[in-house]
Amino acid sequence: MLCAAALATAxxxxxxxxxxxxxxxxxxxxxxxxxxxxxTPRAQGTRVHWRGGVSAIEAQEGDRQCFxxxxxxxxxxxxxxxxxxxxxxxxxxxxxxxxxxxxxxxxLTLDGRVTxxxxxxxxxxxxIEIDALYRHSDCLQGSEKSxxxxxxxxxxxxx
Length: 159
What we know:
Blueprint: E1 47-60, E2 64-74, E3 80-81, E4 88-94, E5 107-120, E6 123-135, E7 152-154
Parallel strand pairs: 4-6
Antiparallel strand pairs: 1-2, 1-5, 2-3, 2-4, 5-6, 6-7
């Protein structure tokens, strides 16, 4: 079961435990930036570790996918929190992610780097190139083999 109210309230998904974090594809550590801070020219190339809820998925030329996400933070217990200012960001990567695992309202954590910005609903939002993508699940019981209960690193199907 996906968290239906994911974009409105905090969901009970641990997000800061080491086992829950995607591994960086490079040795460069991530920097703590908000999406607003990632819009500055100095942020280009900066590695980030962000969380969010998927609001849209867009296929692009060159076998790429982009996810528009509502930015989330986590509290001291690792519970996702949704800032009142509803910051959005776009995360893109090569390959195709299974729609049974990534759809609207799916909760994701990603490691990536700031590559630019796009306009979204009349406002600039940062664009992140995905290095690693982690899917959260709020299933309390049931089989981890069920797509709706899967929690872990996602691997895109390559073109």
